[in-house]
Amino acid sequence: MSREEELRENLAEVEERIAKACEVAGRERSEVMLLAVTKTWPASDVELLYGLGLRNFAENRDQEASAKAGQLRHLEDARWHMVGRLQRNKAKSVVEWADQVDSVDSVRLAEALAAAARVRGKTLDVLLQVSIDGDTSRGGCAVADVAELAGVITRSGDLILRGAMTVAPLTMNPSQAFEALASVVSGLRDDHPTATRVSAGMSADLEDAISHGSTCVRVGTALLGSRRLTSP
Q1: What angle, 0 to 180 degrees and rounded to 10, lies between the N-to-C axes of helices 107-120 and 146-156?
Q2: Can you tell me the distance from the alpha carbon of 123 to that of 89, in angstroms, rounded to the nearest whole number?
């Protein structure tokens, strides 16, 4: 089986899961974006997935993503998401390739991204990464700090707050985590009407996430296979 055929089969299976989950939840399939997590996979896989109809791709390391996006500039309507933990000193580089940063979890990072976007003359879509269980050592801001961070982002003028993201903690039932995130985003929308996106759910738990209002599922393994040990 060729790599294209493998990806085509995997994509069909993932799409079927998303469609069924939407049907069970009484939602339209169009309400949920499939974000292909292509970290550690070669640019050729991104190009194949693009040919199969996907347009949104996620990376978690600036160096790898910058090179990959550079190789694929000819895919003009591809959108690149930064989903990994991000250091402030990488802000300038990330702004060069990312269309959206999904892992903004501190005021200092938001300020660095806003400054980098301003220099480049662009506005940058961002999501707040929320630590539902309060363990910020794994990334994400505490729920209690969401309002302050959202205010900093909105006031910057260079960042557009699009919503929030979380990774379900291993110590918590995924449904509980996704329900909590939905509540956070609901509160955000009251003061920040652009914050409509809920990024939750991955290969193992996308159905639970969709049932709790996720508008974006981040799928890597189910789409591309088991993670490669080293970057190409």
Answers
A1: 10
A2: 19
